[in-house]
């Protein structure tokens, strides 16, 4: 078994990659930065690619190369965790930089879809499990989060449609992991309330100690992904499965 994790150098992605590595599962990490600390801990299990997943041309050029094919070769079980994502731009249409919108859509939607297609095409004959890290924002609209809500909803719908395709050996789920104590949450709490009217709700979650530690959530995500029932529900919420 091998795993591919996007955004593996921080937050939930780092915790998921670390959990997989402790299970002796080789990981290919894709992120804008390289983690020297993770590489030192797991030199024989971790491979890293520095790439900006918000750049569709850069990702397309990398997928056209041989690195992914080489990593996938000869394995009968592949995990793809599409974790990388961005909450920005936050605010109404009056506040949104069009280029920031484009980068968010590329990172949050295009990159997971491109990677999913490439992994499945390059690993025929293997069992493929694809997990999109989604959000409750994909299932409920929030003021100021039109871009984030729309991109997470797109992942949910992608998973539903892929499941209907019933490609042999492919299982997929768009999973909302709950509210996690990561840099993204700190970024949300730092957003001016005029751009994100629900900011105080997230401040209160942190104040009340209701944010899950990344390591705890990562362990639950990995166990969910490795479970026999993975893919039975193409859209799911981790909080309702525990």
UniProtKB/TrEMBL annotation:
It holds the Pfam family adh_short. The keyword Oxidoreductase applies. It is found in: Cytoplasm. The keyword Manganese does not apply. Gene3D superfamilies: NAD(P)-binding Rossmann-like Domain (3.40.50.720). InterPro entries: Biopterin_syn/organic_redct (IPR051721), NAD(P)-bd_dom_sf (IPR036291), SDR_fam (IPR002347). It comes from the Bacteria. Keywords: Cytoplasm, NADP, Oxidoreductase. This is SDR family oxidoreductase.
């Amino acid at each position: 078994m091998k795993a591919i994790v996007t955004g593996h150098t921080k937050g939930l992605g780092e915790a998921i990659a670390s959990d997989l590595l402790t299970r002796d599962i080789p990981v290919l990490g894709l992120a804008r930065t390289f983690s020297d600390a993770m590489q030192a801990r797991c030199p024989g299990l971790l491979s890293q690619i520095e790439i900006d997943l918000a750049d569709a041309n850069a990702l397309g050029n990398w997928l056209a190369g041989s690195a992914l094919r080489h990593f996938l070769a000869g394995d009968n079980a592949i995990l793809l965790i599409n974790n990388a994502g961005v909450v920005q731009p936050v605010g109404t249409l009056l506040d949104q930089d069009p280029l920031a919108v484009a980068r968010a859509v590329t990172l949050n939607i295009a990159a997971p879809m491109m990677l999913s297609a490439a992994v499945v095409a390059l690993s025929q004959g293997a069992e493929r499990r694809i997990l999109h890290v989604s959000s409750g924002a994909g299932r409920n609209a929030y003021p100021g989060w039109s871009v984030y809500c729309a991109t997470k909803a797109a992942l949910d719908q992608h998973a539903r449609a892929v499941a209907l395709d019933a490609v042999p050996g492919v299982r997929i789920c768009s999973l909302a992991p709950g509210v996690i104590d990561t840099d993204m949450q700190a970024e949300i709490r730092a957003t001016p309330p005029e751009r994100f009217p629900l900011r105080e709700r997230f401040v209160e979650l942190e104040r009340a100690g209701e944010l899950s530690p990344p390591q705890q959530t990562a362990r639950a995500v990995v166990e969910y992904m490795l479970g026999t029932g993975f893919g039975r529900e193409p859209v799911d919420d981790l909080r309702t499965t525990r």
